Each structure stands twice: as structure tokens, then as C-alpha cells.
Amino acid sequence: MAALPQVGRRTIEALLATHASGLGDRRLVLVHGRYSAGAPEEFTVRTGEEMRRVRVSHQASVLGILEEWTKHRDKGAGADLLVVTTGVDDGQIGWDLRGQAVRRQTLTVENAEIVMQRFGAAGLDPRVYDEGWLLEALLDAEPSQGWRRSGSVLTRDAALRALVVARLGLGNGDDEAGSAPGTVVDLDALLTWSRTPAGPLRFAELERTERDELKKWLGETAGPAAPVLMSLAETGRGQDAMPLGLLGAVLRDQAASPDVVLAVGGLFGQVMPRRTELQSFTEAVEGALIRWIGEARHNEAARARVFAVLDRADQLAENAGLMTALESNRFLSSSFTAQLRHVAAAARTSPAAGEAALAELNAHMLARLTTDRVGVAEMAVRIARWLALPSPVVASVAAGVRDQAGEWGWADRALAVLWAGDPEGDAATGEDLSALYAAARERRERLDEEFARRLTSWTPNATALHPGGCLVVENVLAEAVRPLAGDTAPLVLVLDGMSCAVAAQLGEEVEREGWTEVVPREAGAAEQPRRMAAVSMFPSVTEVSRASLLTGTAVKGGQTKESSGFAAFWRQRRLDALLFHKAGIEGGAGRFLSEEIMAALASEAVVGVVLNTIDDALDKGQQGRRTQWSLGDVTYLRELLSAARGYGRPVVLVADHGHVLERGASEGPMVDEGAGPGSARWRTGTAKDGEVQLSGPRVLEGGGTVVAPWREDIRYTGRRAGYHGGVSLAEVTVPLLVLVPDRDLVPKGWEALPREQAVPSWWAPHKGGRPETVVTQEAPRRSSKRGKPKEQPAGEGLFAAAELVAPAVDGAAPATLGERVVAGEVYEAQKEYVRKAPEGKVVAAVIDALAGAGGTMSPAALAGAISATGRVRRNIDGFIATLQRLLNIEGYPVLGFIDAGHTVKLDVTLLRDQFFPKEKT
Asked: 164-182 pLDDT, tens per residue?
């Protein structure tokens, strides 16, 4: 006997809807089939205009049907319907019983008709009629709100898509009416589904035929990786599908050892796909993870989702013994750590090896999510570059301070990161970082010792009037701030305790926020301009250095003396001035800054503000193992800068002294008997190893003579996060960042300090070189007359025309890339569309400067390159916009801004394609 067709609740609802007009007062419905196990036995349906209660029962005999109907009839349940599913033929059921049923017969279930009805379709794809499993599945899987209307004809693809969405729970799944518009059934959606708690289990519980058919259809529509994923879900490995896909990447290597192949096979088990299918699956998983990683950069939930996959993959790899084979993987956390170790180890070998390893690390996908760990690797390579340079010397106090601000302070910044180590605490990486740190600290200590020796001979005679070639802290107001007091008075921000390392970090950030750093232009100077720096008072403590800075004279004092001295200094120069300390900065309810400070900024007075965040962090141990300082870390700094920009004020960020950090190397306080400590880093008495004795008019403690250490590991008081008062370069050097909100406000005799010149050469890898020179068959220079260049004769003998080298005209060097561009016909044509185009030599200079710098430059550096042609461009943004109209043919981005407008980028390859199309290979 043939098996009875399965009948579900939705089938019964469809039958009742079909025969609603014939129901009348009848309360019995006979249906040929078997009611699905587990389906609800009672429910409510709409028949025509009324709602009726339905009870369903399956009976295998006439007696059972009769008994069930008798009970139902005797209940007197009014409009309730009894639906009986049965396999008994109509001939066996008496007329008296059939006469009570709808249509006086057993209703036959036509699944195709019911499916069309449930989808609201007038027709059905002919292929669906032959797929009984699909019709039954569609009836069984109908969502609680019904299928979404499909149109006039229900196609096979539409039916299967709706079934997949409902069965797997994609989109809105069971909670809404069928497949929601826009619900995508692709591999990315399936991989996301595989990570849900119950998703793969839903698929595994389906009938075998349905699972096989759905896998087949998904393979046709979502690609060959889909059946692999669904097979893993079918065998209970759905949650591990993505981790397994990552591990399958190890078989991309055709030379993978048999042990590796066996290990991967063991992980996949009976689902192990063919190699081509595995490759497709791996690529799909990696593609999905790349998208997830992009989302995870700004979304903690997405980040957790990524690392859940990666952590599980590492766990499976470790259990299978695949960790070594996967060290070059671009996704795994373990491979990222292995590559980080490689960077640290390679940096100890040579800068080139370190840079190559760092490039591999940056290619790892986790580099986007673990920027702090990548930062450690970058600092290791930077220190390796610095150590590879010839050993520096301290030629003088002035030279030492300048080099600390321009070179060695950056090394201190990197060393702070190396000291803190890998944020994840990898021990192997830590060993190599420690070795690099030790080598660099040895060099830094040697420089500190040389500087201290220079100080001992400089200090006895150094004064504000005779500083020996140095900018001393008491002259900062006169030499660095006074030139800014033009149409708009400056804002002086004193960051107590800011070292050159901290200044380097803050300088990068203020430049990104649109400020331009400026420095005095030194006539006839052979060296490039460098960041300004001054020499602190001695000892390098707040009581003497900050008071001397703010009063413009060598003096010791507190806040009262600083405030009165600041006002007196500017009064002598016929300017009003106000100085604010911590208590006067904070605003009341609804105001971040006080009304007094905002009123001062709105006035014509010179305004000074003392910010103690850095010094307080060192004194109170709040800094801990912090390796970075940002504008947001210094309380009120960002808000004050924003207010200053709003009023068009130039700003001077200046320290009163620097600091050294506690490295745990000291053995405790070191004090001579009978000689008391003045503070953590200076004392009176006799100098010992690691210390020097300083005497002179700028020594304002100890009766004009103090002992101060140049070694970082010497202190005279209890342990803190950091110290100052000694004579190391990091403590004595006072960094200055002079900032203007607009390039038009650069003072006379000053110039912009481009980012490229503020950063030491070893901080970034060398990206370019001199402007490109080109040997070409064209004439190197165009004639002053417009016209078509003369054609070169075809080559004869062994050489073709393209191999001929045109001799330089009048002994001139071969044309640069920029000169070739402005001399070409394409450029001449572009000029016709640009009103008042810049001179050709200026455009060529811009192209050559950018090409020589590797394609990117800061706007300030580009302005410097333009000025070398004898032309000054203050509105660099407008100038770049003009150049874009000249170079960006048909809108192609040859030239433009990146990094939120803080970097100019030239795409040299695209430039060649646009201006030299005949040279394309």
C-alpha cells in the first residue's frame, strides 16, 4: 500500500479556504492523508467572513472516524469543525457518514494547487510539479504570517529561495510573512548563519532528500563553497565551518607535507571536499572575514564575532598540530603573533630585514584590528634604523637640545613603546624588544653623559643675554611668542612636564587637525628648519623653570609670581595679558571652559594657560605604562585649541621642562650623608657616578650649585611614575610647537615646518628619491613656439626608434617627469580648460616633488617645494584644486587630498597613463 501523503496545518487551512463556500453548516471534513506528527491538533482559521475553531484527528478505520464524529457532534460545539485525516476509501465509508462531510466525500490534497494558493500565484513552474519533496516542504515550512505573494507565476528559484530563507531562518525567517524583500541568499549570508546558535541544527534536522536538494540548489546559486558549508552543518560542524575554512588555506601550498594533508582531512572528516572545492570554500570564508574585520574596526560586537572565529581556528589548529604550517596565514591570531615575533627578531638583524618582516605583518588582516601591536613592531624597526646610523655626538649644548627635539626625542618615544612591550604579553617578542631597547638605551645614555659634560662648562657663563647659541627658557616669550603678537594675540599653552617624546606625538595630532607648525627662517642656514627647543633652568623643576618661562627672566616662584610676571612682561610691550592656572580653567554647569577664559580669548590680550596633566600623571603615578599621549589625554587641551582656532589665535605649546620615566632599574633613593635631596632628581653635595655638578647664574637652587644625575636610574626620593630635575636631555630640553590656524598667519621671517621635516629621516622608510629623470626619444625641452614637436627619425641598424636616446640640449640634464608632463601635448590641451593656469615650472616642481617623495607630501612640504621655484603659494588648497583641473583628466584621481585633507597624493602610475598613453605596455 502506498504511503499516505503528509498533511500539515497549512494544508488544512488551504483546503478549508478553497471549500469555504461549500462549508455552510457542515462541521465534518474528511481529508485523504496523514496528519503530521507534532502539528497542532486545534487551531482557528478564517473561512469566508468568519473565524472557526478546528480540531484535527487522524483515524485509520471507519469505526474510528464514526466514533470521532459522534463525540464531536454530541458536544454541540456550534461552528467548530472536525477535520479527520484518513486512508479509508470513500467506498468503505457509509453514505450516512459521508453525507455529513463537506462535498460528501474525502477531499484529496493537491499540493501544487495549495502551494499556488498560499503564494497567491496563478501559475506554477512546470518543474515544481515533478518535485513532490519541494511541494511538501513548502507546505510544511510556511511561516506563521504566510508566504509573501510571489506574482503571477511561482518559479522554481523563487520557491526554493523562500524555502531556504524559512528553513534556515535567514532574514526574518518564521517571524514574518515569508522571504522579506531584499533577503539575500549568498555565501556571506550562509556563513553568517553558520555562526548562529541554532541555525546549523535547523538544517541538520531536515529530511535527507530535502537537505540534498537544498545543497544542490545552493551550490548552483551561491557557488561551489555552499555545499561544503551545508555538509558541515549537516554533520553537526556548522559552528566550526568558518574556522575550518581558514585552516584549509594551508593546502594552497602544493608542496604541503602528507602529515599536513592528513591533519586537514582529519579535521573535515567525512565531509572532506575535493581540493578545488576546499579552495573555493576557503576563499569565501576569507572574503567574509575581510568584510567582518572592516566592520569590527568601529564595532565591538563585530570585533567579538571575528575573534570568536579566529580563536576557534587556532584551537583546532593546535589540536591538529598545524600551528607551524600556518605561521604565514593572513588571518589567524597565532600567525599574527608569529609574524610579530619575526619582526622583532629581524629588526635586531638589520633594518632592511625588519622592514621586510614589518611589510608582511602589515599585510596580515589583523593588523587593522591590533594597531597597538603593529605600533610596537613599527617602533622596533624605527629603533633598528636609528641604531644603524653612525653614532651621534653632542657637539654643544645648543646642538644637543636641537637634536633632542628633532631626533633623539623621537627615539625616546619609540623606546617608551619598546619598554612597555607587546600589549598581548608575548614572551618571545618581549625578549627581542628588550634587546633592542637595551642597545638603544646604551646609545641614549652615552648622549646624555656627553650632554651633561657640555652643560658643566656652559652653565657657569650662560645667561639670558649670553645664552651661548641656545634658546633659553626665559627667552621663549621674547623670541618665540612675541613675533606672533600681530593682528591677533597668541595663546600660550604651558604643558608642565612635556618632553620631546610627548611633543612629537602631540605635534602629529595637531597637524592632522589643521594647525600649521612654523619656525623662524634662518638666513643662509645650510640645514633644513627644525622644531624649536629651549634649555630649561637648573634644576629642571617647575618652581624655577616655569616661573622663568612665564616671567621672561631667571626667577623662582609660584603661581602668584608667574601671573604677575606674565602680565608685567607683556605690559612692557604695551599688550594686556592674562594667565590662568588650574583653578581658573574649569567652567560651570553647561560650560567646559570658564567664562573668564573664554572672555580673555575673545579679547585682544595675550592669554596664557598652564596645564598640569602630564606632570600630575608622573607625580601621582597615573600614567602607569602609558606609551602614548594624545590631545584628548591632556585635560582642556583640545578645547583650548578649538577656542583659539575660533578666534584666529596662533598658539604656542611649550613645556617648562621635560621628564624621564620610571623603568624599575633604580635601587631606591641615593643620598649622601649630610646632603639633603632637593627633589627627586637634584640634590646638594658632591657629584658621584652618573651625576654632574652645575654652578652658574641660571642655577636657582642650592645657593647656585646643585648636583643632578644624567642617568635615568638615579633618584633621591620615593618611587613615582616619572621624574624631572636632572640633566638628561629628556629633562633639560624644552620643546616648543608654534602653531598657526591658517597659513596666511605665518609671521614675517618665519616659515612652515612641514611634517616631513619635523620627523627624523629614520622614522619612516625611505619612499622616494630625487625627482625622476627620464631618458626618452622625445626632445627634452619644447621650443617656446607652440606647435607639434618634430618627429624623431626611425632607428637604423641595430636600434629601433624607441631605443634612441636624445642628447641633452646645451648640456642640460634629461627632463624630469614633471617637465615632460608640462611639455606634452596632453597638458597643453588641458590648459585650455583652466583659466590662469600656474606656470609650467611650478606644476613641474609639484609633480617632481611628489614623485620624489614616494607620491605623498604634507601641504606645508609641498608649499616649500613651490617656493623653491621663486613663487609663493599661501592658499595651497586652492592651488591644488587648480592642479586637479589640469592633471585629473576626465575625472581620474591623478592628484588629490587624502587623510582628511592633511596629505597630498599623486598617483604616478595614473599620471603616466593619462599623459603618456603611447608608453603603455
From this structure: 999 998 875 444 445 555 6
